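Journal club side-thread
Mid-discussion, someone asked how the predicted structure for our own chain would compare to the paper's figures. Pasting it here so we can look after the session.
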Amino acid sequence: MLAKELKKSLKGNSLIKSSMRWVPSLSFMAVVPQGQQHVLERFGSFRRILDTGANFKLPIIDKVKYRCSTQEEFLKVENQPATTKDEHEVSFGVLMVIKIEDVEKGCYKVKEPLEHLVNEITTAFKKEIGNYDLRDLVSSKEAINRAVVPAVEGDISEDGFKCVDVALTRISLPSSIEELIAEVRERIEKHSIDQSEEGAETKKRQQEEGEIKRAERDALKATAELLKTHPHAKFLMDQQLEVDYLDSLETLIKNGKPLVIPVNMAVLEK
């Protein structure tokens, strides 16, 4: 039996619809819509295929048993388990494009034709996934798709169906791997945020330092302009140099290391 997810995906599919209850009809005509073929039974046995349009039938004894779509139908199946070559449990989803080519075979060869069809295709995917290691699985989806169609084509055609296209929609990795990937992504995002915040702080600090340097330059320019016109500019500069010299000398002495300091005798004579 198929999994619940697979049965749910097949529910309501219009590829083959069966008339479970027999309702006697007095009509001599059976009208088949465009894009369909119907299966006519007489006394519970296959009689013939009814094509699109009006078809003659005998009332009461003839019954339309199956209504089949001749158009391509999409079947989507999810959460199918599989095991990789290195024995990791994964799950996958499949999208199938199916068309019925032989209505009689499709309706009568197997009891549940759609379930049988999907089982054939999902089993082929499971076998193909078993040929790959986990690390190569995700990057090999196209190769798996190409390998599955020829593998199931013969069995499907014998049942009256044609597999137009089939593809893996997704592959879910083991929960431990998924958790590890999520943790790595979280760390990368956190690192990116920290880097962004650090970059913003560095930029702000650089802007503040630039403003301070600009203020110092402006102050020096203003002082220089003032000294150009001050009558005692030279005296003030000499005094400032002496103060700076003595401050530096005091700092060196406090360090407690023997120093050889050249002395400006002109300054001492003053």
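Post-session note: The radius of gyration is 44 Å.
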